[in-house]
Amino acid sequence: MKKIISLLAFFYIINALSAQDILINNWLLTGGISVSEPAMAETENVKGDKFKTTDLLKMPLFNMGKITPQANNQIPGLGITWIEKTVESDSSLYFNISGGGYRIALVSSYIQTENFWKGMLAIESTLPFEAFVANNKVSDRYNASTEAKVVSKEVTLLPGKHRLMLKFLVPDTLTSTSRLKAYLKPSDNFLPEGIDISTNPKGPKTINHLLEGPKLSGISVSATGEMAIITILEIDTKTEKTNYLRNVVRLSDGRLLATFRQSEVSQIKWMPKGNKLSYLLSGNVWIYDFNKGSEVEVLRGLNEISSYTWSPTEEFIIYHVSEKDDSQKGDVKHMLTIEDRQSNWRNRSFLYIGHIASGKHERLTWGNRSTWLLDISPDGKDILFSTSREDYTERPYRRQSLLRLDLITRKLDSLWIDKLFGVSVSYSPDGKKLLATGAPLAFGEVGMNVSNNKLPNGYDTQAYIYDIATGEVDAFTRNFNPTINSTYWCPITNNIYLNTVDQDWNTVYEYNIKNKKFSPLKLSEEMVSIDFARDKQLAVYTGSGMNSWPKAYVYDFSTKKSRLIDNTDAVNYTNVTFGATKEWYFTSSQGQKVNARYYLPPNFDASKKYPVIVYYYGGTTPVGRDFGGRYPKELYAAHGYVVLVLQPSGAIGFGQDFSAEHVNAWGEITADQIIEGTEKFITEHSFVDEKKVGCIGASYGGFMTMYLLTRTDIFAAAISHAGISSISSYWGEGYWGYSYSAEASANSFPWNNHDLYVNRSPLFSADKVVTPLLLLHGSDDTNVPVGESIQMFTALKLLGKPVELIQFDGENHFIVKYNRRVQWNNTILAWFSMHLKGEDAWWKDLYPFGNY
Questions:
Q1: 673-726 pLDDT, tens digit each
Q2: What is the pLDDT of residue 13?
Q3: Helices (H), 128-255
Q4: Are 562 and 528 in contact (CB under 8 A)?
Q5: Which residue from 568, 701, 707, 709 is spatially nearest to 647, judged by alpha carbons?
Q6: Tens of pLDDT along 572-603?
Q7: Closest alpha carbon to 448 in 457, 440, 460
Q8: Is the peptide bond before 396 cis (omega within 30 degrees of 0)?
Q9: pLDDT by residue (tens digit) across 334-347?
Q10: What does the pLDDT average to over 532-557?
Q11: SS3 of 739, please?
Q12: Cα–Cα dist 288/304, whole Å
């Protein structure tokens, strides 16, 4: 009787353990792919080994990363179809692979995880196999077994959908049915809940979708409007090198005309006339004429060239040559100016002209200041260039001179000398006026539009028309709320086109000079970058939106319609599911309307409670609606968060009065609006878990994160990337600290505004922080030095506050290298998972020595 009880207890334990197993019951199966032994297989190789039939399984037959198994779909190029099959009552898949000779069979399924997960992947198979999760081999067995012995290997799965694929070697003599059984066994402290097994490839967005695969990078149009260059980039995840592909297409039918892959070919651009491309190769200028089908080298000996511009007549190019200063060598350096800390500040850039007909080169500028080409006159007779110098007596601490050089007589005229608030300029089509862009104070107060004696935000760029003969200035965007990104004065219509920051959109407007009216172009995306044909009313543009990946279009001004011409990124997102995005706003207690939007997780259920991540602008530019980016809102939403994006006062694109709130504020207004907006969002949305709200910001937004934590305890977790903890140390140490502060802290200094530099610096209120704070920083950050995070980390550690500091060696203000960017992204998500979901396994897996 005791033996029976013991046996029952044993079986009870076995059953209890097996109840934790996650069986894979549904599979996708292909027919066999024929494989053959190589010639001279019986010969020993240099290691003394002969070819074994199991080596057929190890051969890389195809690019596994390009295969997306889906029922009834074929594998491109192999001509075999995925067939969906279900396991039998014993949880095993039985299958026959017909055909003679050795064959490779593929079996696949998908594993989706809500959270970070660890466990064992157990595989029972009668055939030799290799098992892959995504593109990584996790287990194998290279001998056949009628008993189907179990092979178990630990796997780590990040949140998202993962393709499980098994390669089987089917012997040439096999006549019996093969068997496969596979299941997942959770490791200690992990549960089977939150794991979904299916044959459906559709799943949430992951960091792999964001970084890997081909990406549309840009587009430019030929002068005739007949052709365009579409640039596509892709990261090699092994070498971390970015490869560029430049496709030349005919816009009428999308036909591919040429492809440039060579990495040594640079500065590819359309010429001012016809359908001709120019580019640099081995220091020489080449032209490819698509109408003639010819490639010609037109200039030699430009090895030191850094950039070049064609004259409108195509008779010459103006190019820059950088001259390095190596007069001061060794490890002792006498700093001449504030900017001298920058490694290349002592280098100078000068202008040269290269004549196409004769091949002659001439130097155009000389001196101890760099000269920068701004434009070439429409008739090609003169050029505009600028120089600048430091002036530490008056903000913005730099003065600009604009000079005009007659290329025939070499006579030099000055349009202005030592002007504060420099501008960028280009000629009008008739050459009599200039189209200028610059700060609201670029031409005195003529471009300023603020109330109550406010100082305008210098980053709220305006557009001006400057009359060369009279010096008169028309500040035509003064009452126009969007901020100017770029401009184009059309020689066909004489209208001006403005690419703008329009609240949180990038919108293109047409400005009619005659009736002085602005009209938006009705384009297909929310965030747009545009290029115009010189000789035809046509443009091409790239754009994306909140849930719209980047695409390229051609826009016809006569029909006012867009036509899609490139959808490269679709291959990355075809099987990605997105949640909905919603508009929202609130009115602050001061009466200011503050715009916002929020992203919902896929399969959102309004009856549930969700953690929230709050994100806000860095610097002074609003958080745009672009797809992806370094802080991808839709990726955070895919991990089960509601993501709230606020556009508090101080951002450009909402009018000068709104952006002026950034000046000398340093969080005073912005923080109150973020706190108030977060509280109102929680109150108005029942699906928000008010105890699980986090916040994140970078650069100025990183400062804002730290500052918020000294003002409120509503956040359960916070992240500051490259944030500023002490305004005074950033002001003096950051490469651009003092010049950025010329706008953000206009006329305020540590010695005359103690309240701003001390009381609004988070470091001096570190004792008020109660929220767990993660500090992220690149060790080589020249914009916001890493010391800004180190000193806040030191303060909070001494105070016994919850804080972590993760430093990325060799990285600057942005985390760029592929593998580091993946870990940086995962660090952000693991931190929020630990504090907003109560799941700490991911964080401990990344940083296991937290209790050292």
A1: 999 999 999 999 999 999 999 999 999 999 999 999 999 999 999 999 999 999
A2: 38
A3: 207-211
A4: no
A5: 701
A6: 999 999 999 999 999 999 999 999 999 999 99
A7: 440
A8: yes
A9: 999 999 999 889 99
A10: 97
A11: helix
A12: 22
- CA distances from residue 743 to 440, 620, 667, 794, 830 in whole angstroms, order as listed: 12, 10, 14, 29, 36
Look-up of token digits 């207690």: 589
Six token digits for residue 381: 């007779």
- 668 is written with which tokens? 């005073």
| Cis peptide preceding 60, ω within 30 of 0 | no
**What stretch of H or E contains 107?**
strand 103-113
Class of domain 578-846: alpha beta
Which has the higher per-residue pLDDT, 18 or 178? 178
The burial class, CB within 10 Å (0-12 / 13-18 / 19+), for 821 is buried
The reply to whether 578-846 shares the fold of 281-311+313-328+341-377+379-420 is: no
Which of 2-11, 443-452, 617-626 is the least confident region?
A: 2-11
**pLDDT tens column, 623-662:** 999 998 999 999 999 999 999 999 999 999 999 999 999 9
Instruction: Among 2.115.10, 3.30.1450, 2.60.40, 2.60.120, name the CATH number for the domain at 22-38+51-201.
Output: 2.60.120
Query: What are the structure tokens assigned to 215, written together?
Result: 């990406």
In the prediction, which pLDDT does 145 show? 74
Q: Is the pLDDT of residue 4 over 50?
A: no
- Domain ranges for the chain, please list them: 22-38+51-201, 202-272+527-577, 281-311+313-328+341-377+379-420, 578-846
User: Which run of H or E residues covers position 529?
Assistant: strand 527-532
CA distance 442 to 808: 39
DSSP 3-state of 781? coil
Q: Which two tokens stand for residue 47?
A: 């290691």
CATH code for the domain defined by 281-311+313-328+341-377+379-420: 2.120.10.60
Q: Which of 656, 520, 676 is nearest to 585 (CA)?
A: 676
Give the SS3 label for residue 805.
strand
Tell me the pLDDT band of 97, cut-offs 50, 70 and 90.
confident
- For residue 483, the Cα-to-chain-centroid distance in whole angstroms is 22
* Whole-prediction pTM: 0.94
What is the rounded average pLDDT for all residues in the chain? 93
pLDDT at 11: 43
The structure tokens listed for 465 are 């028309």
> Rounded CA gap, 744 and 456, in Å?
10
User: At 310, which helix (H) or strand (E)?
Assistant: strand 305-310
2: pLDDT confidence band, cut at 50, 70 and 90? very low
How is the chain split among helix, strand and coil, in percent rounded to 5?
Answer: 15, 40, 45
Q: Count the Cβ atoms, other than its own, within 10 Å of residue 309.
A: 17
Distance between CA atoms of residues 435 and 378, nearest Å = 13
Q: What is the pLDDT of residue 14?
A: 41
The residues, any chain, with a CB within 8 Å of residue 757's CB and separated by 6 or more, are 727, 728, 731, 745, 748, 749, 750
Query: From the CB of residue 416, how many other CB atoms can be counted at a distance below 10 Å?
Result: 16
Nearest Cα to 642, choosing from 609, 685, 599? 599
Q: What is the DSSP letter of 456?
A: P
